[in-house]
User: Fold this.
Amino acid sequence: MSAAVIKIENLVKRYHELVALDHFNLEIKEGEIFGLLGPNGSGKTTTINCILALLSFDKGNVEVFGEEMAPNKYHLKQDIGIVFQNVAVFNELTVYENIEYFCGLYIKNKQTRKQYVEEAMEFVGLNDFKSFYPKKLSGGLLRRLNIACGIAHKPKLIIMDEPTVAVDPQSRNKILEGIVELNKKGATIIYTSHYMEEVEQICTRIAIMDKGKNLAIGTKEELKMMIKTGETINMEVLEIEDKNLEEIKKLPHVYQVEYKENKLHIKCSKGKHNLIRVLDYMQTNQIAFGRVYAELPTLNDVFLEITGKELRD
Amino acid sequence: MFVRLFQYKVKRLFRTKDELFWCLVFPLILGTFFYMSFGGFQDKQETFQAINIGYITTETGKDEDFDQVLMLLSKDGKDQIVRIKTTKEEEAKKLLLDKKIAGIIYNTLEVTLTVNGEGINESILNSFLNQYIQKRETFTKIAQISPDKLNEVLELEFKDSSYLQEIRFTNASIDPMTSYYYALIAMTCLYGCFAGLSSAIDIKANMSTLASRRLVAPTNKMKIILGDFFGAVFVQFICTLITVCYIIFVLKVDMGQKINYLMLTAFVGSLIGVTTGLFIGSIGRQSENVKSAIVLAGTMVECFLSGLMVGNMKDIVERHAPIINRINPATLIVDSLYSLDIYDTYDRYMRNMISMLILATILCIGSFLAIRRERYASI
Amino acid sequence: MQVFKAYFKILRDSIPGLFIYLVIFIAISFFLSGSGKESTATTFTKNKVKIAVINEDEGGLGEGLKSYLSQIHTLVPTENDKEMLQDQLYYRNIEYILFIPKDFTNKIKNNEKEHLCENVKVPASYTGKYLDSQVDQYISTLITYVIAGIDDKQALEYTKSDLEKEVSVQLLNESISISKADDYYYFKYLPYIFISVVVMGISPILMTFYKKEINERNLCSPMTLKTKSIGLVAGSIVTVLGIFVLFLVFAFFLYGKNMEFEKTILYIINCISFLSFATGLGYLVSIFSSNHNILNMITNVCGLGMSFLGGIFVPREVLGEKVIALSKFLPTYWYVNAVEAIQEVKINPSIMKEFQINIGVQLLFAIAMFAIALAGTKYKSDARKQVS
Assistant:
């Protein structure tokens, strides 16, 4: 693919005793929607603050657009847009003025700026709220304003730090659609979240991080390939003997069998015809079963397998 | 760019209710309190209220002339000075005890005064009696030495003449309560600390996400801070001018002739107010609430020491700890205004202004050093 | 009990902030009581003023005036240098400058009566007026003698001896102390401090309880409004008493030597009455203000307003009649009245009645505050009205 937009090498950041980033590496290419996935406190925001040169770090380097990032690299900052986790807008300025203010920090030309601000408002759907003060906006609308302030200047790189926290599903979908649209228009996007569904839905490549480490990286398919589980077969079984469970486990590709609360979970590694084999076995042994469904692995499974804990804790 | 940042800061401040209250509404309310409290003072001086007294006299041995003078002075009308409430001793004593009268004048063998404590009315009675006795002494002497001239001097006595001419080194005319209004102006200027504080917080990434957002923009940090800073000074200056106008035009307090210097002081005062807030905001990592409590309490103390609550506080400080007066911004502002009244030259005024500018510069440099840090250890 | 306990748990968090306030206000009260003493014009005890007399008179009369003034005041020797005089005036090394011009004697002899001398005084000072009247009296007496044809030397002597005559002033009662005791000023200024410290001390905590979410949560519990209010009021009272004891201890520390038992008891009664009002005010404010900033605003406006208009910062005599009429609607007026009465009580026991009235009115104010506050709580507890 094309050149690296962000390149992080061996980044180490300590807060006293706590190691927030532990030799973290990351490379993001142009045109990607890159998902940074990890539980709360895993170092996502720290990573972003380091990329933006807001935080000092102990070791490593950060390159943006092929250049080392520093607080005074204004030509680099020009092309970055950031949507912070917390809503950061001026309460005393209206929706329009807020976007205009932040856009104005990037775009000097008055005409262009005006046009950009209009476009940004259109984009997040805040046209009807142009002269509202942020206090009067609902949570979802406020988030959208927060986003508009970050992207109005049409940056090449957009960093979004959990932009959908505490947002109603409608607004969330609107935001996600918007992100894809921005990407189509040519922006590279970094998207952090601890909602796997979102990341799965829109990201082209994903990094999973925990405790400041980059645990796995790749497209969602690649990530799912990395783990053992190919598919999980769930069936409702009223009664089954331990002997049968042992036998199921011996079927090809099956590596874990669990029976609880009248449900049988069979985890299989990659391979074909897993389901048919299991169904065959059930029929031959005359075990009655109800609803059967197979699940492909989710990012949660990936995360669970890599870190040994659920993502959303 | 700078102009735009400046404009936005001004816009924001004028839309902040807290800011407007402290910098605009509060000074006007306080000024009105002053006016209500001291307004009566001038009325009292101009329309003199007759003092209630008890007058005890005996038929024998009394000073007839005094009797006449007193009757004249207690006659109802515009020139009434005393009002005789009683001529019975027992009643008079009772009234005096309850402070219903200011004093009892005895005209028996000699003229004496009995009071119950001290106060303005008591002292007026005292000096009135002193004058009478001294005059009586003088006329008695003249009557003995050159009785032929007595009529001439008595005539003179009834002519009002002003022997003394008050001159001032300046042509300002101020009334006793002006110092309160000076302190009020100082307070208004120093409330710039709130705007300064918010400017600092809006540029410290470790205090607000807003600051982070502004810092990641390709605009120089100094430019942002200067835009905010001058916006804050400008708003503060406007607020102070409104307060000054209110004092001069609505409350009709004479603020002297040197309005342009008054404005300069208001400007430098606003500057120092904003830098104080900027400094407090820049150093340390206390929460915004703690910081605004600190600046509010600090400003109140500064103003208190410059005479906002008690007019002569500045003089007391001057006597006991003059150094405080040299560095307390509120006192420096009051002194600048005050020196315009005392001096016809501007040396002293300039010295105060320079002290303020030095103070502002130190605070500014301190703040900039604290803010200058480009990356934060933690956010 | 639950509420009462919670009250102190919250108070514990705000102690550092409250402590800063207490220290500042104790310092202020110390300064205030000191300044009250200094600012009062002492009438019967003559105080010497630092003055400068620039005598350029070519005749002898000017010298007479100068030596007269030097006897009753402190004469600071100075040059006739404007810069220097201005500096001296600025730093209050001198408070009054009298210029006796070259033709002073001549003018008097020629029967001229206007502008014989010039003076400069500290702007806006009482001492200036005091000296003016002395100089006026001197010159007018002197002129009288000169016109009467008495020679200069004799005239000066007569003038001096005449001006030494003064009316004899008696005090109604032996035990009246002419100047007010230090504790008078201390207690007179306390209401300002009390309003500030009490409101800042209890309101933030009460506000926490009346915050919409917490209030609603409490309303869902089986605790009755009465129980809750009692808990809060009890918590507030304990806090306020704590603050009061602190200021009382400070008063004893400073003025303990001079304070008589009876006076002290009356001071305490007066303070407690006023504190009940302040507590009520704090309670009321906390119900109707939504954040600390509003609290700050109300405290400052109420504290300063009541102090200026009620005659705490400014002597009652200075206030206009209309303001005094208005100030009767402020508890501070009655507090100050009571403090004045306390000064008299020893020589005039009948004033106790007035004292009682003053206390009564303050308590009425307190009751009014609590009544409004309780009505407010009731209103707030009716959740239906809260939905907006």
